[in-house]
């Protein structure tokens, strides 16, 4: 059984009389531990697909199963619970709180978890260490580089123990050298067992993935299905 199972997923957005078909029948299975890159032109449906996988949006029709659970008709509380514990996002522009320290930014999503303060601190410390920025714990985001900010965002994603990391253009705001360092970090997390799904326009960045999927006009036009070692 695949970790992520999408069957004939469609997504429509309506604005008065205008209907936009963002996804047009996506069928896709992703196994636990895969590293998948999703490519396609702007407006092809990549981000919509990522948002549905990440329980940030729901399909207009079709079936989505996560770890065997059919999420069709699931209440927002259930979707939020999955987002908070099983799936985490990393965004292009980091989404950090500038008035919080690096440590506090990583800790924020853990506050709603039923864990003690000492356990939260332990998780945050381990996550910062895992991405190589433990020495930045007391700094503010305005005092660190773009690459370091993205490492903070990745630490925030793994601190809660999420099984799946969804990354939307995670290297898009970085120079090429820093981008390669960040994508190498994703490779290391994948090697440690995390399932990684990332959106990118950069074929070189996509080459780090074990599988590349191309989307055009809301449909999968290419899925190499390879598992590169």
What is the CATH topology descriptor?
A: Rossmann fold
Q: For this structure, what is the CATH homologous superfamily? A: P-loop containing nucleotide triphosphate hydrolases
Helix content: 25-40%
Shape: globular
Radius of gyration: 18 Å
Instruction: Please describe the biggest sheet, giving its number of strands, its sense, and whether it closes into a barrel.
Output: 6 strands, mixed
Kindly name the structural category. alpha/beta
Task: Specify the CATH architecture.
Answer: 3-Layer(aba) Sandwich
H/E topology pattern: EEEHEEHEHHHEHEHEE
Count of DSSP E strands?
A: 10
Count of helices? Answer: 7
Spatial arrangement of strands, main beta sheet = 6-7-8-3-9-10
Amount of beta strand: 25-35%
What does this protein look like?
The protein is an alpha/beta fold and 229 residues long. It has a single domain (31-61, 75-223), classed as Rossmann fold, CATH 3.40.50. The chain contains seven helices and ten strands. Strands 6-7-8-3-9-10 form a six-stranded mixed β-sheet, sandwiched between helices. Helix 4 crosses helix 5 and helix 5 (146-159) packs parallel to helix 6 (176-191). The two termini are 22 Å apart.
Features of the shown structure:
229 residues, alpha/beta, Rossmann fold, six-stranded mixed beta sheet, four-stranded antiparallel beta sheet, 31% helix, globular
Compact description:
This protein is an alpha/beta fold. Helices cover 31% and strands 28% of the residues.
List the helices and strands and how they pair.
Elements (H helix, E strand, L loop, with lengths): L3 E12 L2 E13 L4 E5 L6 H8 L7 E6 L2 E2 L5 H10 L1 E5 L10 H6 L9 H14 L15 H14 L4 E5 L7 H16 L3 E5 L3 H4 L4 E6 L2 E5 L6
Parallel strand pairs: 3-8, 3-9, 6-7, 7-8
Antiparallel strand pairs: 1-2, 1-4, 4-5, 9-10
Helix pairs in contact: 4-5, 5-6
